[in-house]
Amino acid sequence: MSLKKGALAGDATTAVGYDKKTGLTVNPGRIDPMNEAFNDSRKPLAAEFTVDGKALIVIVNHWNSKGGDTPLFGQVQPVKLASEVQRQQIAEVVSNFVGDVLAKNPQANIISVGDYNDFQFSEPLQMFERAGMTNLIHKVPKNERYTYVYQGNSQVLDHIFVSDNLKNGAKIDIVHVNADFTEQAGRASDHDPLVTQVKLK
Q1: Which of 12, 30, 89, 178 is 20 to 30 Å apart from 41, CA to CA?
Q2: Number of domains in the chain
Q3: Predicted confidence (pLDDT) per residue in 11-32, tens digit
Protein backbone atom coordinates (compact mmCIF):
# COMPACT_ATOMS: atom_id res chain seq x y z
CA MET A 1 0.00 0.00 0.00
CA SER A 2 1.45 3.34 -1.04
CA LEU A 3 0.24 6.90 -1.46
CA LYS A 4 -1.12 7.30 -4.98
CA LYS A 5 1.24 9.34 -7.13
CA GLY A 6 0.21 12.34 -9.20
CA ALA A 7 -1.35 15.06 -7.10
CA LEU A 8 0.69 17.27 -4.81
CA ALA A 9 0.00 17.30 -1.08
CA GLY A 10 -2.52 19.86 0.10
CA ASP A 11 -2.04 22.47 2.80
CA ALA A 12 -4.09 23.67 5.76
CA THR A 13 -6.46 25.82 3.68
CA THR A 14 -6.77 24.07 0.30
CA ALA A 15 -9.89 21.94 -0.06
CA VAL A 16 -9.46 18.49 -1.59
CA GLY A 17 -11.64 17.61 -4.53
CA TYR A 18 -12.08 14.58 -6.77
CA ASP A 19 -11.55 14.05 -10.49
CA LYS A 20 -12.93 10.89 -12.08
CA LYS A 21 -9.79 10.38 -14.19
CA THR A 22 -7.01 11.43 -11.82
CA GLY A 23 -8.50 10.95 -8.33
CA LEU A 24 -7.99 13.37 -5.45
CA THR A 25 -6.97 16.84 -6.57
CA VAL A 26 -4.50 17.11 -3.69
CA ASN A 27 -3.16 14.08 -1.90
CA PRO A 28 -3.46 14.09 1.02
CA GLY A 29 -5.85 16.98 1.47
CA ARG A 30 -8.30 18.53 3.92
CA ILE A 31 -12.06 18.33 3.32
CA ASP A 32 -13.42 21.89 3.02
CA PRO A 33 -11.01 23.12 5.73
CA MET A 34 -12.30 26.70 5.83
CA ASN A 35 -15.86 25.64 6.57
CA GLU A 36 -17.23 27.05 9.84
CA ALA A 37 -18.37 23.55 10.80
CA PHE A 38 -14.78 22.88 11.88
CA ASN A 39 -14.43 25.81 14.26
CA ASP A 40 -12.61 24.56 17.37
CA SER A 41 -12.58 21.05 15.90
CA ARG A 42 -10.25 18.88 13.86
CA LYS A 43 -10.50 18.91 10.07
CA PRO A 44 -10.97 15.57 8.27
CA LEU A 45 -8.06 14.48 6.08
CA ALA A 46 -8.52 12.47 2.87
CA ALA A 47 -5.73 10.49 1.23
CA GLU A 48 -5.70 8.20 -1.80
CA PHE A 49 -3.61 5.04 -1.82
CA THR A 50 -2.81 2.34 -4.35
CA VAL A 51 -3.32 -1.21 -3.06
CA ASP A 52 -2.57 -4.06 -5.47
CA GLY A 53 -3.21 -1.70 -8.35
CA LYS A 54 -6.56 -0.52 -6.97
CA ALA A 55 -7.33 2.97 -5.70
CA LEU A 56 -8.45 3.42 -2.08
CA ILE A 57 -9.56 6.70 -0.52
CA VAL A 58 -9.17 6.88 3.25
CA ILE A 59 -10.79 9.64 5.32
CA VAL A 60 -9.48 10.23 8.84
CA ASN A 61 -11.85 11.95 11.28
CA HIS A 62 -11.95 13.29 14.83
CA TRP A 63 -15.26 15.08 15.24
CA ASN A 64 -16.04 17.51 18.08
CA SER A 65 -16.51 16.09 21.57
CA LYS A 66 -19.69 15.72 23.59
CA GLY A 67 -18.65 18.55 25.89
CA GLY A 68 -21.72 20.56 26.89
CA ASP A 69 -24.18 17.66 26.66
CA THR A 70 -26.12 16.71 29.78
CA PRO A 71 -25.40 13.23 31.26
CA LEU A 72 -27.22 10.25 29.76
CA PHE A 73 -28.52 9.26 33.19
CA GLY A 74 -28.58 12.72 34.77
CA GLN A 75 -31.31 14.88 36.25
CA VAL A 76 -32.14 16.57 32.93
CA GLN A 77 -34.33 14.31 30.78
CA PRO A 78 -34.57 14.05 27.88
CA VAL A 79 -30.83 14.53 27.43
CA LYS A 80 -29.77 17.83 25.85
CA LEU A 81 -27.32 17.12 23.03
CA ALA A 82 -25.93 20.61 22.44
CA SER A 83 -22.71 19.31 20.88
CA GLU A 84 -24.60 17.26 18.29
CA VAL A 85 -25.42 20.36 16.26
CA GLN A 86 -21.79 20.78 15.22
CA ARG A 87 -21.39 17.08 14.46
CA GLN A 88 -24.40 17.30 12.16
CA GLN A 89 -22.70 20.18 10.37
CA ILE A 90 -19.47 18.17 10.08
CA ALA A 91 -21.39 15.11 8.90
CA GLU A 92 -22.98 17.20 6.16
CA VAL A 93 -19.61 18.49 4.95
CA VAL A 94 -17.97 15.05 4.88
CA SER A 95 -21.11 13.50 3.38
CA ASN A 96 -21.06 16.08 0.59
CA PHE A 97 -17.46 15.16 -0.20
CA VAL A 98 -18.27 11.45 -0.25
CA GLY A 99 -21.38 12.11 -2.34
CA ASP A 100 -19.33 14.05 -4.89
CA VAL A 101 -16.80 11.22 -5.18
CA LEU A 102 -19.50 8.57 -5.60
CA ALA A 103 -21.43 10.69 -8.11
CA LYS A 104 -18.32 10.86 -10.29
CA ASN A 105 -17.22 7.29 -9.59
CA PRO A 106 -19.95 5.03 -8.14
CA GLN A 107 -17.41 2.23 -7.69
CA ALA A 108 -14.91 4.31 -5.71
CA ASN A 109 -13.38 2.46 -2.76
CA ILE A 110 -13.77 4.65 0.33
CA ILE A 111 -13.00 3.92 3.98
CA SER A 112 -13.73 6.53 6.64
CA VAL A 113 -12.32 5.97 10.12
CA GLY A 114 -11.85 7.76 13.40
CA ASP A 115 -13.29 9.02 16.66
CA TYR A 116 -16.68 10.41 15.63
CA ASN A 117 -17.60 11.16 19.26
CA ASP A 118 -21.11 9.87 18.67
CA PHE A 119 -23.17 6.70 18.74
CA GLN A 120 -24.06 4.56 15.72
CA PHE A 121 -27.74 5.47 16.04
CA SER A 122 -27.12 9.23 16.33
CA GLU A 123 -28.37 11.62 13.66
CA PRO A 124 -24.87 12.73 12.50
CA LEU A 125 -23.82 9.14 11.82
CA GLN A 126 -27.17 8.31 10.24
CA MET A 127 -26.60 11.27 7.91
CA PHE A 128 -23.23 9.81 6.95
CA GLU A 129 -24.76 6.41 6.22
CA ARG A 130 -27.36 8.06 3.97
CA ALA A 131 -24.47 9.48 1.93
CA GLY A 132 -23.65 5.98 0.71
CA MET A 133 -21.49 4.67 3.53
CA THR A 134 -21.99 1.55 5.67
CA ASN A 135 -21.03 1.54 9.34
CA LEU A 136 -19.25 -1.76 9.95
CA ILE A 137 -19.84 -1.44 13.69
CA HIS A 138 -23.25 -3.07 13.08
CA LYS A 139 -21.40 -6.30 12.27
CA VAL A 140 -19.89 -6.50 15.76
CA PRO A 141 -21.81 -8.71 18.25
CA LYS A 142 -23.85 -6.49 20.59
CA ASN A 143 -22.06 -7.66 23.73
CA GLU A 144 -18.73 -6.58 22.21
CA ARG A 145 -19.99 -3.37 20.58
CA TYR A 146 -18.19 -0.69 22.57
CA THR A 147 -14.96 1.29 22.23
CA TYR A 148 -15.22 3.55 25.28
CA VAL A 149 -16.57 3.37 28.81
CA TYR A 150 -17.92 6.53 30.43
CA GLN A 151 -19.38 6.52 33.95
CA GLY A 152 -19.95 2.79 33.63
CA ASN A 153 -21.73 3.10 30.29
CA SER A 154 -20.13 1.07 27.49
CA GLN A 155 -20.60 2.90 24.20
CA VAL A 156 -19.31 3.20 20.65
CA LEU A 157 -17.62 6.48 19.74
CA ASP A 158 -15.15 5.11 17.18
CA HIS A 159 -16.37 3.79 13.85
CA ILE A 160 -15.25 2.44 10.50
CA PHE A 161 -17.42 3.28 7.50
CA VAL A 162 -16.96 1.82 4.02
CA SER A 163 -18.56 2.76 0.71
CA ASP A 164 -21.50 0.47 0.05
CA ASN A 165 -19.64 -1.43 -2.69
CA LEU A 166 -17.21 -2.70 -0.02
CA LYS A 167 -19.70 -3.76 2.66
CA ASN A 168 -20.22 -7.34 1.52
CA GLY A 169 -17.50 -9.52 2.98
CA ALA A 170 -16.01 -6.70 5.04
CA LYS A 171 -14.91 -7.76 8.52
CA ILE A 172 -14.37 -5.72 11.67
CA ASP A 173 -13.11 -6.37 15.16
CA ILE A 174 -12.83 -4.21 18.26
CA VAL A 175 -9.72 -4.99 20.24
CA HIS A 176 -10.68 -4.49 23.90
CA VAL A 177 -7.30 -3.58 25.33
CA ASN A 178 -7.98 -0.09 26.71
CA ALA A 179 -11.57 0.82 27.59
CA ASP A 180 -11.92 -1.86 30.28
CA PHE A 181 -8.66 -0.96 31.99
CA THR A 182 -7.05 1.89 33.90
CA GLU A 183 -3.81 3.70 33.21
CA GLN A 184 -2.33 1.88 36.17
CA ALA A 185 -3.22 -1.39 34.45
CA GLY A 186 -1.27 -0.28 31.40
CA ARG A 187 -3.85 0.95 28.92
CA ALA A 188 -2.43 3.09 26.10
CA SER A 189 -5.62 5.12 25.54
CA ASP A 190 -9.17 5.46 26.84
CA HIS A 191 -10.49 4.20 23.48
CA ASP A 192 -10.22 0.70 22.04
CA PRO A 193 -8.70 0.26 18.56
CA LEU A 194 -10.74 -1.10 15.65
CA VAL A 195 -9.45 -3.38 12.90
CA THR A 196 -11.11 -4.01 9.54
CA GLN A 197 -10.52 -6.22 6.52
CA VAL A 198 -12.07 -5.40 3.17
CA LYS A 199 -11.79 -6.70 -0.37
CA LEU A 200 -11.22 -3.87 -2.82
CA LYS A 201 -13.22 -3.74 -6.02
Answers
A1: 178
A2: 1
A3: 999 999 999 999 999 999 999 9
